[in-house]
Amino acid sequence: MRLQNKVALITGAGDGIGRGIAIRFAAEGAKVGVLDINEKKCHETADLIREKGGQAMPLVVDVCQPDQVQWAVETLVNKFGPINVAVNNAAVMPAGKVHETSLEDFERAVAVNLRGAFLVDREVIPIMLQQRSGSIIHMSSITGILGLPGIAIYSATKGALAALTRAMSTDYAAEGIRVNSVSPGTIDSPMLHNFVAAQRDQERIRRAFDEMHPVGRVGTIDEVANVFVFLASDEASFVTGANYTVDGGLSVKGEQPQD
User: Fold this and answer.
1) Which residues lie below 8 Å from residue 185, measured CB to CB, with a gap of 6+?
2) Per-domain residue ranges of the chain
């Protein structure tokens, strides 16, 4: 198993891509800390892992709160040992152009998507420095590269995570800590379903997401999880500062759906 004996912390692991990554990590031998603000979903993910014979610990946490993040890291270490892998996946996606976005929605997106990653990284890095090894993976997005209509603030936070990845990779490479990011295209996940449900012409919008990818469809959660397993594993020992686009060729095509 590719992640045998590794301890992994995954935020936003209650559903969607985060849940898929958590389940795959456990299947590959990792002991998984399942972090999510939703208590029910957090426990559901941990239960799914245990039902398959894996090891998981549910940790109900708001990643925006420093004391809660610190508690989660300490609790996970006490349970499973030092953390080897941290996946910053927790995110919210407010819809709207800039002039349509409330200050509250802006601040919430920055708090969850960017501040949350910073708080987790700040807690796990000292542990990884002691080990002189570790893998941190930020969930960025193709929106942070191309931008997509109607989600300006989400796009901005995801672009910031890719930039944070590059800066951190140079800061910690000599200490054996690898920092990478993954930028999915449109993925068949609850976040996509919720976005489409909020649109006027749902059928057209959903079809447009398929058609804008050169492969002719949106991606799957498993296809994203595959890349996270690689980056978390020792197979990626010479990979740091990279941003992996898992987008069906969208970033090469460079086209976007229109309102």
Assistant:
1) 142, 213, 218, 219, 245, 246, 247, 248, 250, 251
2) 7-246
Tens of pLDDT along 107-157? 999 999 999 999 999 999 999 999 999 999 999 999 999 877 889 999 999
Measured between alpha carbons, how far is 132 from 122 in angstroms, rounded to an integer? 15
Q: Check if 154 is active-site.
A: yes
- 137: enclosing H helix or E strand: strand 134-139
Q: Which two tokens stand for residue 51?
A: 């039902």
pLDDT tens-digit map of 55-70: 999 999 999 999 999 9
Element (H, E) at 48: helix 39-51
Fold of 7-246: Rossmann fold (3.40.50)
Distance, in Å, from the CA atom of 35 to the CA atom of 12, rounded to the nearest integer, reads 6
Catalytic residue of the set 154, 172, 209, 244: 154
Cα→Cα distances 149→121, 141, 190, 251, Å: 30, 14, 19, 15
**What number of helices (H) and strands (E) belong to the chain?**
10, 7
| Cα angle: 97, vertex 194, 139; to 5 degrees | 75
Report if pTM > 0.90.
yes
Q: Rounded to an integer, what distance in angstroms lies between the CA atom of residue 29 and that of residue 198?
A: 38
Is pLDDT above 70 for 37?
A: yes
CB 153 within 8 A of CB 101: yes
* Phi then psi dihedrals of residue 22, to 5 deg: -60, -45
